[in-house]
Amino acid sequence: MTMSKSIENRRYWDTPTKAILSTLLLSLTLLTAVSIIPLTLKQVKNNQETQIKADTIYTTPLITPISSDQVVISFSTKIPVTSQLNLISPTERTVLSVSNDPQTSHAITLENLKPQTNYTFNLILNPVNQDTITTNDHNFTTP
């Protein structure tokens, strides 16, 4: 008489092992879904609030061409922030510091740009003791 039984033939509390494992797996899946869905919804809500906040704390940037390879970008914020500019050209992406100290008036001169080139940028705003805010994209073309 053989004492070993395969897992398929074992029974606990008069229930086959496969049924117990299937129930445990389903329960674990449901528990994971129940805990992840509210967290994901909270993150989506926070992202939406951040985007709304970005649009309400800064003015639309003023883009002033200086020459075919130089542009000044200026903007203001309702609260003091440090700021960076994420510049995207057809060939590269660069993050530049605009304001290292919290302030409400911000300006940066972009130099050594390529003439007759399309650029995209967004602003990264860092209010004191608050989450970082990234604005929507803005575009300009050098003369």
Which features does this protein show?
1 helix; alpha+beta; two-stranded antiparallel ribbon; 2 domains; about 45% strand; Immunoglobulin-like; single chain; elongated; 6-stranded antiparallel β-sheet; about 140 residues
CATH fold name of the largest domain, please? Answer: Immunoglobulin-like
Under CATH, the homologous superfamily of the largest domain reads Immunoglobulins
Percent of residues in helices comes to: 25-40%
> Oligomeric status of the shown chains?
single chain
What gap, in angstroms, lies between the N and C termini? 92 Å
Low-confidence stretches: none
Biggest beta sheet summary: 6 strands, antiparallel
* CATH architecture heading of the largest domain: Sandwich
- Number of DSSP strand runs: 8
Strand content: 35-45%
Domain module tally: 2
Alpha carbon gyration radius: 28 Å
Shape: elongated
SSE string: EEHEEEEEE
Structural class: alpha+beta
Average pLDDT value?
84
CATH class of the largest domain: Mainly Beta
How many separate helices?
1
Would you summarize the structure shown here?
With 143 residues, this protein is of the alpha+beta class. It has one helix at 17-57, and strands at 11-12, 15-16, 62-67, 70-88, 93-110, 118-127, 133-134, 138-141. Strand 3 and strand 4 (70-88) form a beta hairpin.
